[in-house]
Amino acid sequence: MNTSVNAIAGPSRTLPRKSARPFVSADNRPSEPDGIFRVVLITSGSVASIKAPDIAAALSQSGDIALQIVATKSSTHFCNQQTVDAAIRKSFGINEDENLPEDFGVRVWTDEDEWSDWKKVGEPILHIELRRWADLVVIAPCSANTLAKIAGGLCDNLATSLLRALSPSTPVIVCPAMNTHMYQHKFTAKHLRIVQEQLEYLILGPQGSGILACGDDGPGKMTDWREIVFTIENFASMHKQKIEQGRMSVVPQRIHQPQQPQSTDIRNGDGNANGNGPDDAQPERPKTPPTPGLPTSTVLPAQLQNMTIGETNTDTPVSAIPPVEPQGNANETSIAHWKKMQNETYWQVRWWAG
Ligand SMILES: Cc1cc2nc3c(=O)[nH]c(=O)nc-3n(C[C@H](O)[C@H](O)[C@H](O)COP(=O)(O)O)c2cc1C
Question: Between 3.40.50.970, 3.40.50.1950, 3.30.420.40, 3.90.226.10, what CATH number should domain 7-294 receive?
Answer without folding.
Answer: 3.40.50.1950
